[in-house]
Amino acid sequence: MKIRFPLYGQFLAILVVNLLVLFLLPFIFFSTRSGLGWEALVYSPVGERVEAIAWLIRRQAQAAPESDWDKILAEFGKFYGVKFYIFDAQGKQVAGQRVVLPNAVLLKLARQHTQPPLPASLAPTAGKLPQGPGLLAPWGLHALAAAHRRFILRTSDPDCFWIGVRFPLRPRAQGPGTLLAASPNLWHTKLFLDFGHFFAGLALVLLLSLIIWWPFAFRITRALAELTGAAEKIAQGKFDIRLKASGGDEIGRLSESVNRMAEQLNTLVTGQKRFLGDIAHELCSPISRLQVALELLESANGASRQSTIKDIREDVEEMSNLVNELLAFSKAGIGGGSKERELVPVELEPLLAATIARTCPGSSVTLDVSQSLSALGDPLMLERAVANVLRNAARYAGQDGPISVSAAPAGKDVVITITDCGPGVPPEAIKLLGEPFFRPEPSRSRSSGGVGLGLAIVKTCIEGCQGTLSLRNHEPRGLQVEIRLKACGKVEALK
């Protein structure tokens, strides 16, 4: 079973990991046995907090007799969570609870007091570090000065951290002393940082991160949940689902794409169902007439038999024409993709002239096209499209006036325009022209014309030639069909 991990959980997990990394990296760095991490800390500006504490202890110690130094160190140690000791330059304990120092600490004290003094040119003055050509970088100079004043090390017997800071004793002392702070766990002290405040700040950072990031994460997860629900409904065949596409980001554009996909799928599925219903309707009528005619043929004789046979022949021809139209529409749709059919330059004047002569032999048709004009397309598909348009024009408007056919360049395109002088179509029916089996006439009798596949075939063929088809009523009367194809100059120049 595959375990689901929601985005809410992922968001919280990433946030927690981010905060843990930010917290654990310094912890691991400063918890190494080698002490390098702690040395870096005590030499950094953070170590100046220890010097500031030493300065406070020094102020109180100078104002009090040496007999009160133990009490002063105990009070400071209680507040900061460590034990304070003062040693002189010879390693002798001056103040603080009696303690036996490990050899590593004694050696460190001895080395610190035997170090040469910091050169005057590099010594900090008035709290500032000198800068100039030939001097150390500010961080290197800071570390060098800190190395003369403070140190930190960790011992294993006892397991303890020892932090030392130079501590000026009374004038009679030989050299400066050292203030030592000892603690088994620096995380429980306030020497470097008040960890209570640190964890409070960490909690505040977490809270602010949640406040800032939560609306963003909530919006993303809610949008993805809506997209998932919409996809599931579309998979169930419910194409009426619509998402609220808000915002111009990727999620908003994805919602718009899902809406368009659902709308197109709804159109395709609805059109397919209507297409099958129209086919059934178109085939039922001649089949029913054939059944009636065959029954009459069984009982008829003489002249009535011949009349019945004639009706049967007409119904069979109607069914044959319908099947041929369906095959033509199917072939046009299969071969309409530009990836499956290679488009070539087609010279329009001879193609249009031949199509007019073959399709409209008894109709008045005018042709206006330049002999050198050519377009990119498939000759057979383009000829079939023009032939169907001319056939419709001759059928519905052949007696009302001449049919005009023209072709002219339009920028990078070529526009073929076919205009008749017929009655046109109702304005509300213009946008439906080109859909399979759609006919402006409400009746579907054989006397009213074809089966409504002519313009659907035209549209599919033109789209197969990477062109567009538009239809509009022509003023004062008639229907105008515009075919727009890509221009390709003279055919001779392309060969």
Write the layout of secondary structure elements.
Blueprint: H1 7-29, H2 36-43, H3 48-62, H4 69-80, E1 83-87, E2 93-95, H5 103-114, H6 138-149, E3 150-156, E4 159-167, E5 177-183, H7 195-235, H8 250-299, H9 303-334, E6 344-347, H10 348-359, E7 365-369, E8 374-377, H11 379-397, E9 403-410, E10 413-419, H12 454-464, E11 468-473, E12 479-486, H13 491-494
Parallel strand pairs: 7-9
Antiparallel strand pairs: 1-2, 1-5, 3-4, 4-5, 6-8, 9-10, 10-12, 11-12
Helix pairs in contact: 1-7, 7-8, 8-9, 9-12, 10-11, 11-12
What does this protein structure show overall?
By secondary structure, the chain is of the alpha+beta class. The chain has 3 domains: 31-113 and 138-193, 2-Layer Sandwich (Beta-Lactamase); 253-330, Helix Hairpins; 340-442 and 450-494, Heat Shock Protein 90, CATH 3.30.565.10. Helix content is 51%, strand content 15%. The strands form 3 sheets. Strands 2-1-5-4-3 form a 5-stranded antiparallel β-sheet, with helices on both faces. α1 runs antiparallel to α7. The chain is rod-shaped. The model is unreliable at 120-144, 335-339, 442-447 and 490-495 (pLDDT under 50).
Keywords:
single chain; 495 residues; alpha+beta; Beta-Lactamase; Helix Hairpins; Heat Shock Protein 90; 3 domains; 5-stranded antiparallel beta sheet; 5-stranded mixed beta sheet; 13 helices; 51% helix; 15% strand; rod-shaped
Distance between the termini: 63 Å
Q: Under the CATH scheme, which class of the largest domain?
A: Alpha Beta
CATH architecture of the largest domain, by name, is 2-Layer Sandwich
Structural class: alpha+beta
Give Rg in angstroms: 48 Å
CATH superfamily of the largest domain: Histidine kinase-like ATPase, C-terminal domain
Strand residue percentage: 5-15%
Query: Helix-strand pattern, N to C?
Result: HHHHEEHHEEEHHHEHEEHEEHEEH
According to CATH, what is the topology of the largest domain? Answer: Heat Shock Protein 90
- In DSSP terms (H or I, runs of 4 or more residues), the helix count works out at 13
Percent of residues in helices: 40-55%
E-strand count: 12
Biggest sheet, spatial arrangement of strands: 2-1-5-4-3
Ranges where pLDDT stays below 50 over 5 or more residues in a row are: 120-144, 335-339, 442-447, 490-495
State the domain count. 3
- The averaged pLDDT comes out at 75
Indicate the overall shape.
rod-shaped
- Report the biggest beta sheet as strand number plus sense, adding barrel if it closes: 5 strands, antiparallel
